[in-house]
């Protein structure tokens, strides 16, 4: 319940502060497991994506955000976010994400692993590729273009689903993950 109240409050605020345009939202399946993969240019990306997309989304968020007990409680219980340690493979985060996908949920992972300080796309970390291959869940690439200055244009383009089975053949190797990651970033690049 809190998620949807927060979603509409955030949606109301961002529509006042920015001129947001979203294209091809119909590319997001209405049900079934999916992995939302946007580029990451601002701290505002998660609330904007969560407010605009037509599904409840569970965000993988850096563990540092959960150190503050109040913020951690709000992120976890209000927004369904779960922590990931970025300095090493985090099996707990992977298991949590796989559980959400098994339950048919939408999760959001920023494939670059961190915000881009320059706005240029970075190489994909293996997380999104691994989860996509293990859960047989399509990846939905999203390009966020804009600078989040007051009343500025923010353009969000939703790409067509990328199905991991087309690339992994049921095998999850470093090469498969790198290949899927490269495809994800190429598709995001086309959307920018």
TrEMBL record:
Transmembrane segments: none annotated. Residues 34-147 form the Phospholipid/glycerol acyltransferase domain. One of its GO terms (molecular function) is 1-acylglycerol-3-phosphate O-acyltransferase activity. Keywords: Acyltransferase, Transferase. InterPro entries: Plipid/glycerol_acylTrfase. One of its GO terms (biological process) is phosphatidic acid biosynthetic process. PANTHER family: 1-ACYL-SN-GLYCEROL-3-PHOSPHATE ACYLTRANSFERASE. This is 1-acyl-sn-glycerol-3-phosphate acyltransferase. It comes from Aceticella autotrophica.
């Amino acid at each position: 319940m809190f998620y949807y109240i927060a979603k509409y409050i955030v949606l109301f605020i961002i529509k006042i502060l920015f001129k947001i345009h979203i294209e091809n939202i119909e590319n997001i399946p209405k049900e079934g497991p999916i992995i939302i993969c946007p580029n990451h240019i601002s701290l505002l990306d998660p609330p904007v994506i969560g407010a605009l997309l037509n599904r409840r989304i569970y965000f993988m968020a850096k563990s540092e955000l959960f150190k503050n007990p109040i913020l951690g409680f709000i992120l976890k219980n209000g927004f369904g976010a779960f922590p990931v340690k970025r300095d090493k493979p985090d099996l707990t985060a992977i298991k949590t994400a796989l559980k959400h996908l098994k339950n048919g949920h939408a999760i959001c992972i920023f494939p670059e692993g961190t915000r881009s300080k320059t706005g240029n796309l970075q190489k994909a970390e293996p997380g999104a590729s691994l989860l996509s291959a293990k859960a047989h869940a399509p990846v939905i690439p999203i390009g966020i273009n804009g600078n989040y200055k007051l009343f500025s244009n923010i353009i969000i383009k939703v790409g067509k689903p990328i199905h991991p089975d087309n690339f992994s053949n049921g095998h999850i190797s470093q090469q498969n993950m790198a290949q899927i990651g490269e495809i994800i970033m190429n598709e995001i690049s086309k959307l920018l």
